[in-house]
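Page 47, continued from p. 46.
Same chain as before, 219 aa.
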Amino acid sequence: MHLRAKPWASAWLTAHSDIVISQKQATEQIGKWQMLFDENQPIHIEIGSGKGQFILGMALAHPEINYIGMEIQETAIAIAARKSFEQGGKLPNLRYIYGNGNGVETYFEKNEVAKLYLNFSDPWPKTRHESRRLTYQSFLKSYEAILPEHGEVEFKTDNRHLFEYSMVSFMNYGMRWTKDDYTLDLHQDDVKVLGNIETEYEQKFMAKGQPIYKIKAHF
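Result:
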């Protein structure tokens, strides 16, 4: 969902370029991302962070991991980054990229990222838009290029069609999962919901009684 522009967003992002990395800067940072964090720790990325509730929650819950939230909308990335800054200042294990998730291999080198999250991505329901879905084959190729061997992609959605499409896309690409790696109703699964950090969309759909689908797929 496209957010209404905020007049303060551009100036805030410019003033906090140590927290929010531009797309151009990101391409120059390849192979050197650990330098932006206080500790050398595994890096996890969320593509399409929206207003940042998930990535901030993860960073606060897991100080032993470095997190990067990636978002293409200026208003969304500004809201996300300002929210985290107001809550904890410049968090030692959280940074953002204001840029497109298409072509993440131009930002990171092989093995530089340990895990990747896709949360409530745009389903792009029309067939002619299939290549825009974040679980389309070309995207999976990009993810594989930055993750280690057996690297993991964690995917959540409220959209049953996108979930089924993604499972098939993962399988056709050669990715693997077991019956323990997915659920058709996350919040009714007492085991899989443990430690779950909710996104803004997740809370919205839960309030409507919609099931949340989740899968962890491995290369």
